[in-house]
Design brief:
four-stranded parallel β-sheet, Rossmann fold, five-stranded parallel β-sheet, globular, binds iron/sulfur cluster
Length: about 350
Amino acid sequence: MFKSQQRIPDEYILMSEQERDERIRAIKAKLGPKLVILGHHYQRDEVIQHADYRGDSLKLAQLAAQEKEAEYIVFCGVHFMAETADMLTASKQKVILPDLGAGCPMADMAEIEEVEECWKLLKAKYNQEIIPVTYVNSDAEVKAFCGRNNGMTCTSSNALKIFKKLLGEGKSILFMPDEHLGRNTGLEWGLGEQDILLWNRKNPGEVKLPETAPRLILWDGFCTVHQRFEPQQVDEVREKYPDVKVIVHPECSHDVVERADLSGSTDFIIRQVTGSPAGSVWAIGTEINLVHRLAQENPDKTIISLNENVCMCVMMNRISQPHLLWTLENILKGKIVNQIKVEEKITAEAISALNRMLDISK
Ligand code: SF4
């Protein structure tokens, strides 16, 4: 959820990068195991170099939960990720987001009031069982909604397992908030386009509901980064690099995914690229910081972005080194800034949605 970030003192912005680096390292050494810094794969190099762990959102939240000694967990990612970390850690542990303005546009596309309205209309129309499933890239309130309505969360790694289980049992799914991950997964499972209904969150009255419940109802949200990849970019890169392998994230639209060689989560992309033989050529359809880092760390391969120009997650990039240092220096002074705290009832319901996912994806 977008919140406004207070202006941080100018000294943090004017300071040299080297001084900020040194100060961050000194604070880490001083706080030792009391402090854990988590860095999402899409973070800038200047930030992620200070992370104790790198990973995707759920992996980082689970790692935070294992760090029982840590009093301060600084999450270099976006708001919903810090919420999940707070829900999975003990109440005495403090989860901090260095810039409160770092929200996820996709998560913000599913507001709880709109979700409740959709559910009311679906329940009034259909007797068939519909299970709400939300991608972990969603607000805690939406996860809690799924938890109290017999639903669950999913990640891009386990979405297919969740769909197999629910669709295989003959149930319908309301999938939020990413239309593309939902469609890609539904089609991969074997649904046809005729089995899928696209919701209209701003004008729900305009959705024409068929007589029987569709197998898959898709929320009309999207990732502002992955939505920018286009099918002709795949054709162009194949023309330029005949041996290229194209790998994309399933938050890309279906026409991009079906033209690519491979599609999968951030971790899947990293494993495929790093595990490939020297000399391999890759065009990657995901956030640019990760693509550039993979290129730097694998100099024996040619690694390019499917779209060099526009694919940075602006919100992830709000987490800057000045904000990280400002957060840490406040901890040293005994002042906690930007703590992310989810209320207890929401936490309990959201955790039940997360646990149902974990049970199915074992
Ligand atoms: S990359 Fe997409 S899904 Fe991830 S935080 Fe940015 S907008 Fe949200």
